[in-house]
Design brief:
This protein is of the alpha/beta class and 253 residues long. The protein is 26% helix and 23% strand. The chain contains six helices and ten strands, in the order βαβαβααβαβαβββββ. It has a five-stranded mixed beta sheet, with helices on one face. A five-stranded mixed beta sheet has the order 4-5-6-8-7. α6 (172-181) links the parallel β5 (149-153) and β6 (186-189). α2 (48-61) runs parallel beside α4 (88-97).
Length: 253
C-alpha cells in the first residue's frame, strides 16, 4: 500500500471552520494516514489562545504531524517578538505535537517561505531567502540516490498563477527550478486558499506543484473548505485527491 498523507493548510485557528476540522479529524480516525501535513497559517493572529487551540486539535489526531509556518503564524500584536523571535510560538507548537515522520515511500523536505518583514506591501506574500533555499538544497543533496518520492513543503506557492505576469513569491521561480534540478518530485503548499494540482515549468525544469484549500471561514474565489489526500509510492509516484467540505461535491482527483 502507498503511504497516505493528509495535506491541510490555512486552518487559521481564531477563524477556523469547526465543521471542516471535525470532518478532517473523523477522516484521520477512520483512515489513519501516515501523517497530517499542514503547510502553514495554523493561526489567524498568532495569539497564545490560538496556538493553544491548534495544539489541542493536532495532539488529539493521534498520528504524526508535520508543520511548516505561514505568514499568519508570527506575532501580530507583539512587534518586538515578531522581529526578535518570530517563530518562537510556532516552534513551541511543533515541538509539542510533531512526533516525527518516517516512511519507506516518501520523504518531506521543508522550505521556509515566510519572513518577519519585507520591503514591500503586503508582507503576507512569500519570499525565498538564499539561506532558506540553501538549507533545502542541502537536504536534497543528502537524499541523492534515495529511491523515495521527495516532496518539498512550503507555505507559499513558488510560482504565480499559470499565465500570470507576476509571481508574488520573491525568488520563487529560481527556487522552483533549483529544487526540481536537485531531485524534488513535487512541492506542496497552501496560502492562496484555492486548491490546484499542476505540472509547471521554470528555468527549463518541470515539477509537480500541489496546493490545498483552507479549513477556515476565510474562503476565496468561491472555493469551499477542503483538504487533500496524497498517496505516495517510491520513485516520484504521487496520486492526489481533493476532498471538499460542505458543498455536497464528491472528491476531485
Amino acid at each position: 500500500m502507498p503511504t497516505r498523507l493528509f495535506h491541510i493548510s490555512d486552518v487559521h485557528f481564531g477563524t477556523e471552520d469547526r465543521a471542516a476540522l471535525d470532518a478532517v479529524a473523523a477522516a484521520v480516525a477512520a483512515e489513519r494516514p501516515a501523517a497530517v501535513v499542514c503547510t502553514g497559517d495554523l493561526t489567524q493572529r498568532a495569539k497564545h489562545s490560538e496556538y493553544a487551540a491548534a495544539r489541542a486539535w493536532f495532539a488529539a489526531l493521534g498520528v504524526p504531524v508535520v508543520l511548516e509556518p505561514g505568514n499568519h503564524d508570527m506575532p501580530y500584536y507583539n512587534p518586538w517578538e515578531r522581529f526578535t523571535d518570530p517563530f518562537r510560538r510556532f516552534e513551541s507548537l511543533r515541538a509539542a505535537v510533531s512526533g516525527g515522520f518516517e516512511s519507506p515511500d516518501v520523504v518531506l523536505v521543508p522550505l521556509r517561505t515566510t519572513v518577519r518583514a519585507q520591503t514591500r506591501i503586503p508582507w503576507s506574500d512569500g519570499v525565498v531567502k538564499p539561506a532558506a533555499l540553501r538549507a533545502t538544497l542541502s537536504a536534497l543533496a543528502a537524499l541523492k540516490g534515495d529511491p523515495r518520492t521527495i516532496i518539498v513543503i512550503a507555505h507559499h506557492p513558488l510560482l504565480g498563477p499559470e499565465g500570470g505576469k507576476h509571481n508574488p513569491t520573491i525568488g520563487g521561480d529560481a527556487a522552483f527550478a533549483e529544487l526540481a534540478a536537485a531531485g524534488a518530485h513535487a512541492v506542496i503548499s497552501g496560502h492562496v486558499h484555492v486548491p490546484f494540482d499542476e505540472v509547471r515549468r521554470s528555468g527549463g525544469q518541470a515539477m509537480r506543484t500541489v496546493g490545498t484549500g483552507t479549513l477556515s471561514t476565510r474562503l476565496r474565489h468561491e472555493a469551499p473548505a477542503s483538504w487533500r489526500v496524497i498517496d505516495c509510492d517510491p520513485g516520484g509516484v504521487i496520486d492526489t485527491h481533493l476532498r471538499l467540505i460542505g458543498s455536497g461535491t464528491p472528491p476531485l482527483s
